[in-house]
Amino acid sequence: MTNHIALYEPLMPANTGNIARTCAATDTHLHLIEPLGFSTDDKHMKRAGLDYWAKVDITYHESLDAFLASLPADARLYLISKFSSKTYTDVDYTDTSLDHYFLFGKETTGLPEPFMRKNPEKALRIPMTENVRALNLSNSAAIIIYEALRQQAFTGLERAHRYEHDKLK
Fold it and tell me: How would DSSP label each residue in 60-92?
């Protein structure tokens, strides 16, 4: 079982960098669906301070269709959108025999509306007030992946940093 975060045509390198850091910290596979609004070459990533980029399991997809075609037949795909009646906490992510894919839309427009209309049963939202248009993409990805990991008992993740643990002895 693997957890996956997929970003549809991300525009902002800082968001993608923050999500990549979360993926590195949680052993989550990152999928980037092109076109991207920035370059991910080594020079740009180092300039952005993303020295952990090499520790991210990352796959690039030429299009949304290419990404969808790459999914295993038994994968669970979740579309993260503010236009859903089901919240991310309404889902059971504990089946460790399955891959869980969390697909996030472009920062400015979300996922394509025709695609969303075809798949409303896969849509999940993070509850929030109407005071803002949307939560930050990297914050949303962290909220969702950590809920899945919490339900999976944080399998494979350390509960405390060794240094902090040693100081408590």
Answer: EESSHHHHHHHS-TT-EEEEE-SS-SSBGGGS-
Q: Report the predicted TM-score, pTM, of the whole model to 2 decimal places.
A: 0.90
Question: How far apart are alpha carbons 104 and 28 in whole angstroms?
Answer: 14
Which residues are part of a known binding site for S-adenosyl-L-methionine?
80, 105, 126
Binding site, by residue number, is 80, 105, 126
Position 96 scores a pLDDT of 81
For the 3-168 domain, the top CATH level (class) is alpha beta
Domain boundaries, the chain: 3-168
Residue 142 predicted with pLDDT over 90? yes
